[in-house]
Amino acid sequence: MTFTPLTGVIPPVCTPLTPDREVDVPSLLRLVGHLVSGGVHGLFVLGSTSEAAYLTDGQRRSVVEAVTKHVGGQLPVLAGAIDMTTPRVLDHVASVSAAGADAVVVTAPFYARTHPAEIAGHYRAVAAASPVPVIAYDIPVAVHTKLPPDVLLELAADGVLAGLKDSSGDLAAFREVVTAVRDHEDVTGFSVLTGSELIVDAALAISADGTVPGLGNVDPHGYVRLDGLCRAGEWKEARAEQERLCALFGLVSVGDPARMGPGSSAIGGFKAALHLRGVIDCPVTARPQVPLSPDEVARVRTYLVAAGLL
Amino acid sequence: MTFTPLTGVIPPVCTPLTPDREVDVPSLLRLVGHLVSGGVHGLFVLGSTSEAAYLTDGQRRSVVEAVTKHVGGQLPVLAGAIDMTTPRVLDHVASVSAAGADAVVVTAPFYARTHPAEIAGHYRAVAAASPVPVIAYDIPVAVHTKLPPDVLLELAADGVLAGLKDSSGDLAAFREVVTAVRDHEDVTGFSVLTGSELIVDAALAISADGTVPGLGNVDPHGYVRLDGLCRAGEWKEARAEQERLCALFGLVSVGDPARMGPGSSAIGGFKAALHLRGVIDCPVTARPQVPLSPDEVARVRTYLVAAGLL
Amino acid sequence: MTFTPLTGVIPPVCTPLTPDREVDVPSLLRLVGHLVSGGVHGLFVLGSTSEAAYLTDGQRRSVVEAVTKHVGGQLPVLAGAIDMTTPRVLDHVASVSAAGADAVVVTAPFYARTHPAEIAGHYRAVAAASPVPVIAYDIPVAVHTKLPPDVLLELAADGVLAGLKDSSGDLAAFREVVTAVRDHEDVTGFSVLTGSELIVDAALAISADGTVPGLGNVDPHGYVRLDGLCRAGEWKEARAEQERLCALFGLVSVGDPARMGPGSSAIGGFKAALHLRGVIDCPVTARPQVPLSPDEVARVRTYLVAAGLL
Amino acid sequence: MTFTPLTGVIPPVCTPLTPDREVDVPSLLRLVGHLVSGGVHGLFVLGSTSEAAYLTDGQRRSVVEAVTKHVGGQLPVLAGAIDMTTPRVLDHVASVSAAGADAVVVTAPFYARTHPAEIAGHYRAVAAASPVPVIAYDIPVAVHTKLPPDVLLELAADGVLAGLKDSSGDLAAFREVVTAVRDHEDVTGFSVLTGSELIVDAALAISADGTVPGLGNVDPHGYVRLDGLCRAGEWKEARAEQERLCALFGLVSVGDPARMGPGSSAIGGFKAALHLRGVIDCPVTARPQVPLSPDEVARVRTYLVAAGLL
């Protein structure tokens, strides 16, 4: 297959659950509809924001099948193949590509201690076996390793990788990759995407191809508007829109840090917001995440109202 | 079933692979025989030393089935259920307990950012669903969280956990748990095991119940001897035996750090030693680990000779 | 004294040493002249790039005295007061303010384990005793703590701090501070400066007041040009200039990581470049930093030539 | 001078302060008397437990002068020379050795990013200039680097270092050094001391020379008793005594983690205990540490009572 480089807004799609924590497919498809009608340019299922780390293999399969079938090729669907090492990732790659994913998104090895040479070998082995393009997922907060820019460039030049989704928060290192792939004559069709939803204007200003904003679940229209303003060079207006979204992002921190971790708070906040906006039926998160309290949900509502979303 | 508290030497069993990286069951069973004839008191399959992070679900199942069937109840078989979060761990628990494991060994959540309250909830949910006892696996180098002693004690007192396998290297924190479970009237039948193969004498001296030494694959007789000396109060002889094993442990560091990570070197060293000793057919490790060079394997041989094992 | 908020380019001034590692005052003053003639808007002495961590108290005093006397009030001189805790920092504050510094730059406590409440107390105590304004220095790579945005804002609103020099590399957290101080009615005269020399255009685009680029020692004209382009809204030209400077920044990585740490390589690279450009007499760095080899210095030269500086 | 290898109990001496945070010399000398009458074998002033990171140069000098003069050669006085890099450490070495210290205790470089080659160079340069023996201080929690065993051994064999004070908590790495210096024919007169007050019995069992217990301020008799039992091979009684001290150590955790860092709690706990025991006049700690609340001090009292010290 040919794979047009990805650009624009490609949100990591939340995975709505039923009260007994099964995938809530109707809510999931409503969420996809909400995103598509918001104008997004692609979908990323089974990412960290999708609670991929919490979904069983069966649940992961349900998600990809439901979304790819629903979307029907309208826009590209990327799927995470999140697991510890090459052999386990390859099983996920086979599963999600059979279910219709247009590309797979793969992290560095984790749990096992790793090394740049092993990271390179990992991506080479995954790409050799994958029927769809492979996008590197740089997420040190989860895997505790930063993908080295020189390894990424070597893999891009060799055609092993079709892109990078950067959730490192390190814009200087991201820029090194963006600039190098743009200027490297052997690299073609490589998409550089930022997962840092608070600095999308800055990332696009330095030539990133697109963005993968978790907060885009809650306000896809906002991120699409922001993307458009940046592409039009309307930097002042882009900054205002980004700042509005930054303020909205406060909803990820409503959870009491004495009671829960930052993941429970962030995913809980996204899902509470989607529930309050009427997109999904139930805001429950997967175990062992701690649910938000009613007071914390009330604070999510305040953020939505302030951002003009409720 | 009733579960007698575990004591003694319970090595984490390496997983021999064929040249094309499938589980080599005959070699695995020869390794089990080598350990049993060495006098070990239990077996721990699918731990970190077993390359659990690198084995597919199918391979994990093969390992547990082959070993439990071979052992036939002679000695307890613990099995790792290593995965990121509760729902995924529960799938492994179901699988390995169906395959005959006598207990499951479970880490804190990883990849996802976590919190003590979430760790406690994780173990409670796993234990509620598990047909066999649950042992906590404290391995910060892999999961990037240290199990808090107070959480462990609460779970031990509530009967959620049947034991701790500590690979943190922090003997003071380990002692806090050992002493507290020994002195806590509500805690019964809780086994405290150390995974620190270089300080087994020290761990047993402070009342640990047993040890889970990766190096026990290579020299089970040595660890059984060491365990016996400690139990007999022969501390001076124990120290000498431990120091011999510490010297042997140098074989985990033969790999060139410019070419590979510490995991590749350690697992590669164990497997090379087992191959040189004639226990397993092939020293290959799972991808993306980097293989040892012939020179590095020659250095493994030197360690074996120096320890009187070749 | 009144303190006009700082804007523009305020390089952290390298500290040239003689071959026997005393402060080389003539070279230091030539470097200051080089920066001033390059158009910089302020000077920051005794920062990390100045090797403040390596200078004795006597050497620190020499540097501040020489520079403030030479500059004679032409442009503001900030001085680091880098030490572990409040009492020790206060001694440096007294010393550098007596020597003529216009403001002091102070990190979170380090060596000692710290806490947000202690960080706040630290800055309050320092500011209460300082005769000159206090600027917070956020440099997690050195002090292993990130200054929490909410602590910074509280201290800004209370008039404790006059600014922030951010070397965290975390543009999203930086933006949170930039936006909040701009929008907070109780905060006036607070300067937000970035130390991330590779994303100056991005930082200024999100409303930072100025920049503190280590690489500005080597190419002050470039950073002044970049600052001007950003202020004029010439974002495309700014990006090109920034990318030229990013390429030049490669000179900080010439040192062999098998032989030296990243600090030795970076400071060694800056000083070699200043020596090659004829600004300072001797490129020696303080102990125990490892010197660059002749080959490594030759690579520094290559970077200078490529950037049009030699 | 000749330097007999250190053995036994060498507590890091707390630094009592007056209410306005000057060194309280009478209380300091009473504390020294308390320790000496408790039977300790040496004193370590200006260590981490001494709040060296919080003392000005003038205060540090007062401490060493007062203690060395008071002790008058009765037992060895080690002094910390805690600072970021070689030139600054050398100033402290000159100061404390002039004030009568018998040896200096020096960490790896901190604040500056470092490297094994730079650590080795640091110790070589310090030792070359020091009039008294140099002891390496391994304290990763403070300096964020672990001293590599191979570097320590090289420096021990070359006569650069006279000992190691290990506060890493990593008993396996400590054992590697203990065993290697004992067995290395070129190493003589090298003392290996543990700073881990909760596993003194284990450290002495594996051949450590002595111990540097912060809690020894509060209960020197206990640590001297423990040391004696270990040397007599009375391991069971030693374990009981160590466990009593472990229980007492709970006093370092009385501080509320929502209000203060672990350092404030630990130093605050030691000083509160010394105050409650009538050894020092005032329990105040240096800024910016947060003081214990009256309730927290009451909990310290409970620990003292439980340990039979009040």
Structural class of chain A: alpha/beta
Residue-averaged pLDDT of chain A: 97
Major sheet: arrangement of strands of chain A = 1-8-7-6-5-4-3-2
Cα(first) to Cα(last) distance of chain A is 42 Å
Shape estimate of chain A: globular
Most extensive interface between two protein chains, with residue counts: A-B, 44 and 44 residues
State the helical fraction of chain A.
40-55%
Counted by DSSP, the helix tally of chain A is 12
Q: Strand percentage of chain A, roughly? A: 5-15%
Specify the oligomeric state: homotetramer
What's the count of strands of chain A?
A: 8
Low-confidence stretches of chain A: none
The gyration radius over C-alpha positions of chain A equals 18 Å
**Helix-strand pattern of chain A:** EHEHEHEHEHHEHEHEHHHH
Question: Would you give an account of this structure?
Answer:
Helix content of chain A is 45%, strand content 9%. Chain A contains 12 helices and 8 strands. In chain A, strand 6, helix 7 and strand 7 form a beta-alpha-beta unit. In chain A, helix 1 packs across helix 2, helix 3 runs parallel beside helix 4 and helix 6 runs parallel beside helix 7. The longest helix of chain A has 15 residues. Chain A is globular, with a radius of gyration of 18 Å. Chains in contact: A-B, A-C, B-D, C-D. Chains A and B meet through helix 3, helix 4, helix 5 and helix 11 of A and helix 3, helix 4, helix 5 and helix 11 of B.
